[in-house]
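[SOLVED] Predicted holo structure with S-adenosylmethionine

Edit: marking solved, answer below. Original request kept for reference. I posted the sequence and ligand SMILES and asked for the 3D complex as structure tokens.
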Amino acid sequence: MKFSHKIAKLAQPLTYRRAWRKAERIIHPIPLEPIYARIDQARLAAIQAEYAGSKEHYAKYADVRRWLQLNISRAQDLKLQRFAPRAVLDLGCGGGFFLFVLRQLGHTCLGLDIDEFPLFTQLLELFEVERRVWTIRPFEPLPELDRKFDFVTAFSIDFNRISKQDWWWGPPEWAFFLDDLKRHLNPGGRIFLGLNPGKNKEFYTPELLDFFLSRGASVERENVLFRPKSGEIPPS
Ligand SMILES: C[S@@+](CC[C@H](N)C(=O)[O-])C[C@H]1O[C@@H](n2cnc3c(N)ncnc32)[C@H](O)[C@@H]1O
């Protein structure tokens, strides 16, 4: 099947799925205000004053309300407000917005990221989100993490590329990464990847799409979800 046909096939029920997801967010809301109210407002105001008008890469993340709202939607789309407490590892966790939301839902959380952007460190401290500092590299295992996880997530992924060279991980790099991730997962664990588009606006090459599908992933645009095989599904 041609790549364009494959993409079209994946896209067919997309409108329906998007509409259903929107409806589900309304049916199972996670209100922003109680989450926002848990933040130390004086510290947040100081951080926002520091980055107001800043040209620094990622200064946009000082707009905490906006990013919390986005991460509430992410939690809703993964149905995490409907699961009993789970252990979640977020790779490339940035400022920790997603994990901060999850903690309010009763989940236990660990972020993993490089330590390059002071704003992310300030936000993680503000949110009291634990981060393991680590650089993910192709064909290198993740560090020992002294616990296992029910969900491993990674949103707006950046660790799979050298953007200046427009070099992206292909199936061999992803195969190593996913195989290594297995040892960090509890039985029935799930992996969610939110990919960034390349310069050509595509999220994957035909080969990479085939690879994700061959590994049993559900793929919807940038979203790649590996669910447990039947028989491995833990109680919700
Ligand atoms: C676009 S930001 C997304 C942050 C967060 N996931 C979100 O959606 O708000 C990409 C993140 O990936 C992290 N990152 C980039 N390269 C990485 C690497 N090699 N290993 C671990 N994290 C990396 C960055 O520091 C940054 O936090």
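OP edit: The first strand starts at residue 87 and ends at 91. Thanks to everyone who chimed in.
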